[in-house]
Prior knowledge:
By secondary structure, the chain is α/β, with parallel strands linked by helices. It has one domain.
Amino acid sequence: xxxxxxxxxxxxxxxxxxxxxxxxxxxxxxxxxxxxxxxxxxxxxxxxxxxxxxxxxxxxxxxxxxxxxxxxxxxxxxxxxxxxxxxxxxxxxxxxxxxxxxxxxxxxxxxxxxxxxxxxxxxxxxxxxxxxxxxxxxxxxxxxxxxxxxxxxxxxxxxxxxxxxxxxxxxxxxxxxxxxxxxxxxxxxxxxxxxxxxxxxxxxxxxxxxxxxxxxxxxxxxxxx
Length: 225
């Protein structure tokens, strides 16, 4: 929670001083943006520590107009890096019925340059992946179902568990987790099968349905350990 004073006053976007904190990552002030300043220094220290591999950065936000969960990612000139970045949200879409890959967008709009995702995406090397996970304030729509399902605390918690499950899937695909996951997709305790994800572009999204991966995760040298 990087905006405790603003949230305490009922502001979900602005801090006590009226700053949209997710626009000041490039040069946060220790006085005006103390939480960003502290976290940025921590991340840079971790990144410069040879004993630490900083592989993922994900900030989590609620969205006031769109439905479902979805992600924002970055655009890179390196086509392979861009396609590797798309793997995690595709896996999350298979695990979470309320996550929409068609609403997921990869961009580098100037207005978003001060966000954590954009700033750290330019700072960290190509073995690190930076995302924003957005989740609707309101509801989600299941594939093939017209009525919207209101989000509850339980549904938000379930999405969080599915994000954790996706990390396990991701690292297993990269041969960093030995053996099959328990339970496997066909025998999960909740008896929910993997969800079919569509890769079509959503309205206003760029590069949401990129080309399929040319190489397997194992061959892409995503990690250096």
